[in-house]
Amino acid sequence: MEANPETGPQKGDVQTRWVELVVALLIVVAGLVVIQDSLRVGISWASDGPKAGYFPFYIGVILAISGAVIAAKAVMNWRALADKTFVTRSQLKTVMQMLIPSIVYVTVIAFTGIYVASFIFIAGFMVWQGKYKWWLAIVIAFLICAGLFFMFEVWFLVPLPKGPLEAWLGY
Amino acid sequence: MDDLSNLMHGFAVALTFKNLLFMLVGITLGVLIGVLPGLGGANGIAILLPLTFTMSPTSAIIMLSCIYWGALFGGAITSILFNIPGEPWSVATTFDGYPMAQKGQAGEALTAAFTSSFVGAFFAIVMITFLAPMIARFALRFGPPEYFAIQLLTFCSFVGMGREPPAKTIVSMMLGFALAAVGLDTVTGTLRMTYGVTDLLQGFDFLIAVIGLFGLGEILLTMEEGLAFKGKSAKIDPAIVWKTWKTLGRYWATSLRACLVGCWMGVTPGGATPASFMSYGIARRFSKRGSEFGDGVIEGVVAPETAAHAAGTSALLPMLTLGIPGSPTAAVLLGGLLIWGLQPGPLLFVEKPEFVWGLIASMYLGNVVGLLIVLTTVPWWAAILRIPFSIIAPIILVICAIGAYTVHNNMFDVFMMVVFGVVGYLFKKLKYPMAPLVLALVLGDSAETAFRQSMLASNGSISVFWSNSLVGSICGLAILLLLWPVISGLIGAARGGGKGKPATTPSG
Q: Which residues 351-410 of B are in CB contact (within 8 Å) with A?
């Protein structure tokens, strides 16, 4: 793989090697957590057979070793991996434009119920990202939420999280 | 002959008006799911699963498996018209499908794709019809060591056959097993890895993982790639269909090879995606027009589509007969069966024959119905993709959130779905395979139970896995597959003779 200055990471881009290394190390940590907890509940034999940690212990060991192998590979190829970009700055921005509203959305569900939160989310996203007229966004978001409401609450009788608005409406 | 009469009985079950209606609904939803980014066979079925709890299990599984066929068909539409694979297994279809559309042969490409999907699936269903009862009868002899060995074989074949680096496949698998271990240990009643968090008592449900990994993860990837969908228009009329059908007979050898590759990759959990690539590669090597592949050759559409469908369908064979799914989607269907109180495996054929044969009969019917639906409705599906992503994306996320919530009526699951979404994004970009994680999460408990029972029977001696010829040969095969990357590397080194170390570092 030749280094290509044109496609290599620019300033502000996230390099693949760093993400690779960090994820691999997190995997090692996860493996150690599994090992630690398995040791806590016991990995040996009790009178009635293997204890609860018997099987997960080996899972944790293999997990930690595999993570370490990936991390070691990333470090050994550190130079060769230099020209690989994980995400460019602008790509990261668009990903975050989706991820952050998503996190906010699921948090809001806990307070307002799913219908109100979804309405705000869909309408907001349309105006913010899609540059739609606000009234069009409200109409579309309302129709979708109303459709979901009838499908789940009325037709299939599957209750979804509801908040003050639904309570006020008598649901 | 007994099986044939069972099958006829199955047709009688599947051919009721209600079940035909569910079939139609399922196929339509499936194509929709296959066309939309972020929704696929696995998470689409996971999301719709709670809606089927009020139906009879037979109707429900007919609808859910039809969603699966629909999703398999739907992936081809986006690949050919938009050069965007709606599903991972239709990536290989874009190689020749999109160039054909650019040349104005979109109708031919779509007809070829749908028809070969149908042929592939049909081949696999015929195989299931004849092999499933035999395997089920055989598997009745299995004890815990054999079950664990089969599961070992499943997971080892991921390592050996996967296109991803072995270490990453193992990591993904072990993460699945570790997540499956979280919560109450059903054998000893001990709490594992809950750290005092009550929401973790139930453990991680694989449906949540599927919705997050394949749903939000996919949406984030689509966001990154930009939102512009520029598609070719599609017109399919009976004349084009008829003209294409007349030429397709010429490619029977390609189709047959693709069917065999697909069935093999589907039964061993290689899955539809590697099957489609492998079949494409084989077709290119064998074809007289091999050098033209990539410029819009119809064979380049036939080969991957046939194999993907054959693999997608035959993945249900181990799921039904052994209780071991061959793909994430088969895993979700398995989860559904468990929720309805049906334990897939050899006993299912004995205890619930009407269910099993109704399902198999519905596979035949579902694929015929599916072919007719997609051939007649392509322009509408293409129109759906022209809806801007800034409307589609939040809607899909809302659907994912609802799907995650309805699994256990639990808000914690919705948060976990987002976490899995981020994991899915990172894993996809770093080329960690996700199917092993899902399958390990599904099979974790049963694998552990089988392992413990085997250990109990042998008083902790690992030699129980070599105690008879059956379990020994399965284990041997598993270890061969596990070491396959090393072995093939050595073979390569021996052939390369003296050229120094072969490049074993996986690219990408």
A: 388, 390-391, 393-395, 397-398, 401-402, 405-406, 409
